[in-house]
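User: My collaborator and I are trying to settle a disagreement about how two of our proteins should look. Neither of us wants to argue from intuition anymore, so we agreed to look at predicted structures for both before our next call. Could you fold the first one, then the second, and keep them clearly separated?

Assistant: That sounds like a sensible way to settle it. I'll keep them separate. The first protein:
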Amino acid sequence: MTLPSELDALAADRESAVVLTCPWHERATESLAERLGVPVYTPLPDTAEYLMQTYGLTAEQAGDGSPDLIWLLKEGKGDARPYAAGDRLPVGVEAFPGQKPNDVVLWIESHGAVIAGDTLVDFGDGLQINPRWLSPAVTRERVAEGLRPLLERPVEHVLATHGGPFGRDAFERALS
């Protein structure tokens, strides 16, 4: 994946970081973090225990857990800064619980923006909490309840990994 050269100029003029909503969305993070010399804030990947309990995998199938971010977390090829829902990051980002423990929804107050990862998506029916990706132990209402405090914020933009961008009205509908 080729990243826009404009990122270099933007990063040079301010304190920069990569902030992931979930570890499996790492895409070009390794090359970007290396190129810009920035830290990577990320929820931790799934442990083997979580994979076995949630998806019924055997210990052999689960191995050492999810292979996401091995370069960062196990090989030490970057500045890893793990975080979880409830954390406020020093880069002006607040993390809210999403549809999985390590799929969070981010609030960036300075831009009035919600960054939704995989918790809120649009696959042609408008912004919604995707029921296909919820585990049996997690209900749509539970996810919506964790995100409703964001409705008290001046949300202007919702950026979903799948679909969008959206405005506040679509966000309110998705949580109703």
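The second protein, kept apart from the first:
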Amino acid sequence: MKFLVNLDLLGTGDEGMMVVNATEFFSPVCFFLTAINNEKKYLAKIGQRGKARNSDHYWFTEKGVPSFYFYTLGGIKAYHDIYDKAETLPTH
């Protein structure tokens, strides 16, 4: 296995995307994503952060598997509350 990609909290991406573990594992994956986005302007930005225990990728990381967790930024602010409903997510 080269690496694991965990996709969670995917929404509109109006404000971009964050890559967790980007600073832990220098990878052509992060460079490639940033280069494509810089050229095509799909997202406002691709942020990078270090190690975090905030999703399923973490346990793979702890076992030595390079793991990346991607989540989008922006959109509705509801997260695991009564307002977090499929119909509130813009799909256009």
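Some points you might bring to the call about the second protein. The chain has a mean pLDDT of 85. DSSP finds two helices and four strands in the chain.
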